[in-house]
Amino acid sequence: MSREIVCVGVEETVFDAAELLLSARVSAAPVTNDKGAIVGIISEADLIRRAEIGTAARKTWLGHLLDSEASAARAFVATQARRVADVMTRDVVTADEDTTLSELVDLMERHDIKRIPIVRGTVVVGVVSRADLLRALLSREPDRPVLQPTDRALRGNVVDALENRPWTSRWPINVYANDGVVHLWGFVEGKDVRDAYRVAAESVPGVRRVKNHLRTIPASVGMGV
């Protein structure tokens, strides 16, 4: 997670928030009270529909006809209010320091959000964003093996990597290796399975390149056709 936290005070103005987001080059920031506890989050999306710049949403006559007093009032506050407390999102998705990366990704996808404040109790101690997950991915980039395996060993490793997969082809797949280049021959049921074979082979240490000669045929075609 990023420990250099950019927070917006709940008593600050939307102009203060916009300046902070721009200067920190972030798209959203936690909103905290005077005790450092998180009370909301404010994002670019909360600040782009503003009366000052003429971007407030315009409703059709039918929209006005169907609009309730409550929703009209909320729309007015969102575009006219100058206090962060009036425009921020109050239902904040947070996580604690023991949350796994997998759980964080699940939260991001479930709630369609790009960053999650990490809290200790109610105090923000960090933020995990999609960019942090990309950095984590880069840190796991595999290095090329110090010793290149023999072609025979490499072929065996690739065969092992292709076996017992949920998408394994009903037809035999032939694997050949030559100077780190792996050739795949055979028949598979569709392009997705063909791609899966290639990706699995590419993931084997020592494979420099994969030449995918697999041919796709419909699942309904039998062995003898």
List keywords for this structure.
225 residues; CBS-domain; Histidine-containing Protein, Chain: A; 2 domains; 4-stranded mixed β-sheet; 35% helix; 20% strand; Histidine kinase; CBS_dom; BON_dom
Structure description:
- The chain has 225 residues and is of the alpha/beta class.
- The chain folds into two domains: 8-139, CBS-domain (Roll), CATH 3.10.580.10; 151-216, Histidine-containing Protein, Chain: A, CATH 3.30.1340.
- It has eight helices and nine strands.
- It has helices at 14-24, 61-66, 69-80, 84-87, 101-111, 130-139, 151-162, 191-202, and strands at 8-9, 28-32, 38-43, 115-120, 123-129, 173-178, 181-188, 209-212, 215-216.
- The strands form three sheets. Strands 6, 7, 8 and 9 form a four-stranded mixed β-sheet that branches. Strands 1-2-3 form a three-stranded mixed β-sheet. It has a two-stranded antiparallel sheet with strand order 4-5.
- The protein is elongated and about 70 Å long.
- List low-pLDDT spans: none
The figure for the number of domains is 2
Structural class by helix and strand composition: alpha/beta
**CATH class type of the largest domain:** Alpha Beta
Number of discrete helical segments: 8
Protein name: Histidine kinase
Keywords: CBS domain
Pfam family, one: CBS
SSE layout and pairing:
Layout: E1 8-9, H1 14-24, E2 28-32, E3 38-43, H2 61-66, H3 69-80, H4 84-87, H5 101-111, E4 115-120, E5 123-129, H6 130-139, H7 151-162, E6 173-178, E7 181-188, H8 191-202, E8 209-212, E9 215-216
Parallel strand pairs: 1-2, 7-8, 7-9
Antiparallel strand pairs: 2-3, 4-5, 6-7
